[in-house]
Design a protein that fits this description.
alpha+beta, Small Protein B, Chain: A, two-stranded antiparallel sheet
Length: about 160
C-alpha cells in the first residue's frame, strides 16, 4: 500500500481503466464491507479485473471487485466477488444515474483506498475508448517519454 499526500492509503488501482476509458468525472464513494473483507483489504488483497458500478433502485452498487478471503477468518467467509453497496449522497447517486443514462457512459472504479480508517473507492464516469484512440494515446505517451529522455541527455 502506498500513502498519498492527502492521507489516503491506496490498496489497489485499476490500471486498465485510464487506458480503456476516457474519464469525464470522478466521485468518492464509501464501501459497505464485512469485517474479514476490511482485514483482507488492509493486506492489499483486492483486484479490479472486470469491476464496474451501476445505479439500481436509487442505490449505487459495485460489481466484480475481487477481495481475497482473509486467511484467518472463520469458515463463513463472504463471496470474494459479491456485489457491494456504495455509499453516496442522494444527489450524487441521482447525478450518476443521469450520467449513465447517456449512451456510451459507464461507471468504472479507479482506485480503492483507506481514508481515516474508512474504505473508499474512486468512481469515474467514463466513456469507452475505441481501439484507434488507445493506439494514439500509446503513441503520444511514447513520444513524450522520448522527448524527456532527449532533454535529460542534452542537459535540458
Amino acid at each position: 500500500m502506498t500513502e498519498t499526500e492527502d492521507g489516503r492509503r491506496i490498496v489497489a488501482r485499476n490500471r486498465k481503466a485510464r487506458h480503456e476509458y476516457d474519464v469525464l468525472d470522478t466521485h468518492e464513494a464509501g464501501l459497505v464491507l464485512m469485517g474479514s473483507e476490511v482485514k483482507s483489504l488492509r493486506e492489499g488483497k483486492a483486484s479490479f479485473t472486470d469491476a464496474f458500478a451501476r445505479v439500481e433502485g436509487g442505490e449505487a452498487w459495485l460489481y466484480n471487485l475481487h477481495i481475497t478471503p482473509y486467511e484467518s477468518a472463520s469458515l463463513d467467509a463472504p463471496d470474494p466477488k459479491r456485489t457491494r453497496k456504495l455509499l453516496l449522497h442522494a444527489h450524487e447517486i441521482e447525478r450518476l444515474a443521469q450520467a449513465t443514462q447517456e449512451k456510451g457512459l459507464t461507471l468504472v472504479p479507479l482506485d480503492l483506498y483507506f481514508r481515516r480508517g474508512h474504505a473508499k473507492v474512486t468512481l469515474a464516469v467514463a466513456r469507452g475508448k475505441k481501439r484507434h484512440d488507445r493506439r494514439e494515446d500509446l503513441k503520444r505517451e511514447a513520444m513524450r517519454r522520448e522527448a524527456e529522455r532527449a532533454m535529460e541527455r542534452h542537459g535540458g
